[in-house]
Structure formats: C-alpha cells, structure tokens
C-alpha cells in the first residue's frame, strides 16, 4: 500500500483482472509506437494490478523517474513470498514486446527530391 493515500479505482479497475487489462492495453499502446515497457514500469504495473497503487500514483512515479518531476518517491516493498496477480502475464508480455522489431514509420518523405512550386 502506498504511504501517501489509498488508491482510487474507477468502475473499470475494480478487480485485478480489470487492472491487468488496463496495463496490457498500455503495454500494447506503447508497443504500437515503438516503445518497450521498462523494468520499472513493469514493476509498478505489478503493484497497480495488485491494487496497491492506482494509475495516478503509477503515472506520478514514472514522471518522477523519467522526467525529473519533484514528487516524493513511492515506497513499494515486495514482501518475501508475496504472489502478485498476473505477474507471470506481465513478465511474459514484457519479454514478448522486447522481441518486436523496431518501429518503422508509416510514411517516409524523400527530402532529396527538390520541390517545385
């Protein structure tokens, strides 16, 4: 559980299965743009699916880590023996996405051709 506030979930995030669907969508949306989920994003995703943090907390932590926003860090501890719901699926998707070829733009403009108006 986060030390700052209780997580809040909308009607589409009430169960671990629903939260896994949200996280899987985020993985897929990022992959469609050539991104791969970082180890930290996957770790935070486990806590989100388990219901320990909500999307706002996850997003704030990612902003803190990658964009230098001055939010207090989340302190999330993985207790020994704790089983996270959908942890195997998160790991499998992360491995699968890592094998995808790099993004190829849909459209490439040949800028070597002179443009005449």
UniProtKB/TrEMBL annotation:
This is Uncharacterized protein.
């Amino acid at each position: 559980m986060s030390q700052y506030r209780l997580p809040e979930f909308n009607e589409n995030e009430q169960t671990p299965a629903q939260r896994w669907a949200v996280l899987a969508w985020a993985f897929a949306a990022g992959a469609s743009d050539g991104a791969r989920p970082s180890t930290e994003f996957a770790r935070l995703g486990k806590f989100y699916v388990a219901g320990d943090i909500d999307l706002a907390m996850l997003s704030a932590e990612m902003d803190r880590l990658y964009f230098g926003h001055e939010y207090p860090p989340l302190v999330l501890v993985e207790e020994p023996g704790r089983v996270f719901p959908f942890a195997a699926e998160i790991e499998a998707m992360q491995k699968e996405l890592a094998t995808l070829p790099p993004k190829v733009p849909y459209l490439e403009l040949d800028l070597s051709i002179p443009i005449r108006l």
